[in-house]
Amino acid sequence: MPILWISFAIFVALLLFLDLFVLNAKDHVPRTREALAQTAIWMSIGLAFSGVIYLAYDNGWVTSDQLPRTAMINYLTGYLVELSLSMDNVFVIAVIFGYFRVPAKYQHRVLFWGILGAVFFRLAMILAGVYLLEQFDWMFYVFGVLLLYSAYKMVGKGDEVHPAENPVIQVVKRVVPVTHEYHGHDFWIRLHGKLHATPLFVALVMVETTDIIFAVDSIPAILGITTDSFIVFSSNILAVLGLRALYFVLSSMIDKFGLLKYSLALILTFVGIKLMLHEVWHPAEWVSLTVIFVTLTGGILLSLLRKAPTPHPPDPTEIREPTEVPDI
Fold first, then answer.
1. What is the pTM of this model?
2. What is the average per-residue pLDDT within 96-114?
3. Number of alpha carbons in the 13 Å side-chain half-sphere of residue 143
4. Domain definitions of the chain by residue range
């Protein structure tokens, strides 16, 4: 078991190294074709890893009673849940970048370090969630209610983002001085002998805290599929790793997916009910995968078929490099 975890950690570290120092060694604005190609690569890796899951559970690399086929389906379901919920995260990230006027060529750098931090935070949250479910049966109901409430919020007013009012920014300002100008892609800079944070670092902190908030929904959702910590972690992380490329694909046309939030709410509702009925309702693994896939696909298709509204978040490729940022 530890060998599998260590091997996966090395695999993820290798992917991150290739992403930052090979594919995106130079700061640049990813064009649509490049973003689509990278998204396809990340999704291919995520889907292909289901084969590794099958082999791991078939050859006894993991101590588990799950059949290899069951483990593979649970992985794919968890991957699809996290990937679908990440789409909602894209809109919030676009708002954050738009507010701070983050230069488009530095946005990938912020997303990279934000997701690197998310790997560690999510590992801690997943292990804690699995422990709570194994030790306290009533936590199934707590997580179920949490998902139902999240679904309600998603179809309600939604979460409005007001970066200037965010307490995280206020905390950063109290701890370290923050410059009002960007200094290339640097998060920190020394001015007059004193270390200052740049607006890029503040944007990074905002993205990181936003991911933690979204993980409060997505991790219980995957735990509603399986409590196998390796499947939960691997499916979660491989889906999140593709979020950077997915952001550059979706952020400029997020207004075209207006009905997607209803699909995501239905997915959260389905998993929430499944958690609350865990003692009496045990649908086959393929049922959960089918319901989530059909619901997500239906939301995307219906969104594309309807006429999109006029307002939309800023296209990251149209954001010009500023000299100052507001309200920091």
1. 0.83
2. 86
3. 32
4. 2-318
